[in-house]
Amino acid sequence: MSPADLAGSHTPVLYQPVLSALQPRAGSRYVDGTVGAGGHAAGLLELSSPDGWLLGLDRDPAALELAATRLDRFQPRLRLRHGSFADLGQHLAAEAWPPVQGILLDLGLSSMQLEAAERGFAFRLDGPLDMRFDPGQPSTAADLINHLPEKELADLLWQWGEEPQSRRIARGIVGRRPLDSTAELADLVSRVVGSRPGQRVHPATRTFQALRIAVNDELAALEAGLEQAAEALAPGGRLAVISFHSLEDRIVKRFLRAEAKGCTCPPWQPICTCGREARFRVITPRPIRPDADEIESNPRARSARLRVGERRGLA
User: Fold this and answer.
1) Rounded Cα gap, residues 258 and 280, in angstroms
2) For the chain, does the N or the C end have fewer beta carbons within 10 angstroms?
3) pLDDT mean over 291-299
4) Would the pLDDT of 312 be above 50?
5) If you compute the radius of gyration of the chain from its CA atoms, what whole number of angstroms results?
6) What is the model's pTM?
7) Is residue 209 very low, low, confident or very high in pLDDT (cuts 50, 70, 90)?
8) 28, 173: one domain
9) In what order do the strands lie in the sheet with 305-311?
């Protein structure tokens, strides 16, 4: 199946919960910070017709091309820009947009990225060790694998992949350098870590996650993007974030809780001197997860978690 066919046939993760959370309506403006093939964006544009607008961002030029094709019927209410949600403020300023009513950040990989062997994201397909969201980025996964000192590589696998066998894997990688393909790396990790009969998660999952996060500096981008989103939302506007692993989810959860609390003074201090006010109301004390039907139709959705916050203030 071609990337265009995948884009047209695939239903986005947590599609209905996202639309219910963002409550799109006519005359409002929305941002899809990871527009991908445009699945969530299409729903937002449909429900905000006839005069709602959407700005779609993506670091992946190929995704933007697919989104432009899929969402062309919504012109002129659509804007697409190549870039990261970490620079959301700059993109909104370039479009001269006022504060918006809703922002979505879907942090998962798209089917198109995973099914393209030449992108190097999938350990089940043989391709180059690339893993860049934007092919214009300078460093690839191969650069990290083949040039980092053993200790730095082990630390990377532990920090970004939470891989308990990080030291053994790093030692094995250094002993087998140079590694050129995803199949080589997946095979090496499987041999080092081992696998159990019936094991659902591939032994290389954490290693590939760690490398992808490092190549794309994903967690720093997420932290910057959350702050940018808080600044960009109008009072009453909502932020929805779909994460797929615990590192991302912890960042989102801590951000929303801190922004809902406001004051950061020590608990023993009798009065507040920091003057920090709460900017958000947490809409989802517990994350929303896919139901059994969605997981059956799309097994990749099983780890998805949706958290939602609402910007405080007078509308």
Assistant:
1) 9
2) C
3) 92
4) yes
5) 20
6) 0.92
7) very high
8) no
9) 78-82, 53-58, 29-32, 100-106, 233-243, 305-311, 280-282
Distance CA 61, CA 65 (A): 6
Helix (H) or strand (E) holding 190: helix 182-193
Q: Which residue has the tokens 């199949």?
A: 183
- Which residue reads 């030291």 in tokens? 167
Task: Determine how many CB atoms are found less than 10 A away from the CB of residue 255.
Answer: 22
Q: Looking at the structure, tell me whether residues 306 and 245 fall in a common domain.
A: yes
Whether 130 and 269 map to the same domain: the answer is no
What does the DSSP assignment read for 60-95?
Answer: -HHHHHHHHHHTGGGTTSEEEEES-GGGHHHHHHHH
Q: Which of 191, 215, 239 is the last residue of a domain?
A: 215
Domain of residue 96 covers 3-112+218-311
- 119 in Cβ contact with 62 (< 8 Å): no
Decide: 110 and 103 in contact? Cβ < 8 Å.
no
Residue 179 to residue 169: CA distance in whole angstroms: 13
Q: 134: which 2 tokens?
A: 């934007």
- Taking each continuous run of H as one helix and of E as one strand, the counts in the chain are 14, 7
Q: Cis before residue 178, ω within 30 degrees of 0?
A: yes
State CA 262 to chain mean position distance. Answer: 26
Contacts by 127-132 with C-beta closer than 8 Å and gap 24+?
A: 127/181, 127/182, 128/180, 128/181, 128/182, 129/179, 129/180, 129/181, 129/182, 129/185, 129/211, 131/208, 131/211, 131/212, 131/215, 131/216, 132/215, 132/216
Do 205 and 224 contact (CB within 8 A), yes or no?
A: no
Is there a single domain that holds both residue 154 and residue 301? no
Give the model confidence (pLDDT) of 159-174 as tens digits: 999 999 999 999 999 9
Backbone angles phi, psi at 241, to 5 degrees: -130, 125
Q: Tokens 């809703």 sit at which residue?
A: 102
| Number of domains, the chain | 2
User: Is residue 224 classed exposed, middle or buried when 0-12, 13-18 and 19+ CB atoms within 10 A define those classes?
Assistant: middle
